[in-house]
Amino acid sequence: MIKGIIFDFDGVITDSEPPYIEALIKYLHGFGIDATFEELQHVIGKTIDAIATEVIEKYGLQVTIEEFNTESMRIYEEDNDIRKFRPMKGLYEFLDRCRKKGIRMCIASSSELNYLYTIMDSLEIRDYFEHVISGHGLPRSKPDPLIYDLAAEKMKLDKKDLMIIEDSYNGIRAGKASGIYTVGLKTSRVIQDTSMADKEVYSFQEIEL
Asked: CA dist 96 to 85, 86, 100, 198, Å?
């Protein structure tokens, strides 16, 4: 029986991944690099530092990780009002279903805390979650299972009683590596390989509790 659910955020709570990839494309265009959405979408699920490291190396950029993050996030924030991001279809109903069943809930995301709280408050969902864990600042990023191991520890639940809901290839690899039952939710506009998940679903309604 499921006693707790650990949610990824971007691509699970709200469909924020496409605009971030678009911001990266715009940033790289400033270097004369015509990167495509398909070339960059594999970074989804990682922390911004891990993304910066990978993209800098891939394209041979002469910038620091801090410079990369500052400028790419400036573009992202200029082009998007995160307070207007909408919830994934069926999210509110699913959260209510979990609450009625007494299932405890936690967020474990690679994104920064301030970003997470801003969107959660605009969606009015913060009260559903007893923990909000950011991978920003952790020594290892998804696909490493560290953040999910930490979430299980904070929730004080046995891993066999937990479920992870993820949408990204990197996140699902992290979930599986943690030994927790992992659901691949395919509601984002970004189509990712979720075949490693214990179960793939196309809506929150399909998730059995």
From this structure: 20, 17, 6, 24
Mean per-residue pLDDT over the chain, rounded: 94
What is the number of other CB atoms lying within 10 angstroms of the CB of residue 99?
Answer: 13
CATH of domain 4-15+86-206: 3.40.50.1000
Tokens representing 53? 């490291």
Burial of 175 (0-12, 13-18, 19+ CB in 10 A): buried
CB-based contact 163:143 (threshold 8 Å): no
Contact 8, 165 (CB under 8 A): yes
pLDDT of residue 41: 87
Q: What is the pLDDT of residues 97-129, one digit of tens each?
A: 999 999 999 999 999 999 999 999 999 999 999
Domain-by-domain residue ranges, the chain? 4-15+86-206, 17-82
Structure tokens at 96: 């209510």
Q: Global pTM? A: 0.88
At how many degrees (to 10) do helices 17-29 and 48-59 cross? 40
CA angle in degrees (0–180, nearest 5) for 84-88-90: 130
Helix intervals (H) in the chain? 17-29, 37-40, 48-59, 65-79, 91-100, 113-123, 146-155, 169-178
69 close to 23: Cβ distance less than 8 angstroms: no
Ramachandran region, residue 90 (left: φ > 0; alpha: ψ -120 to 50; beta: rest) = left
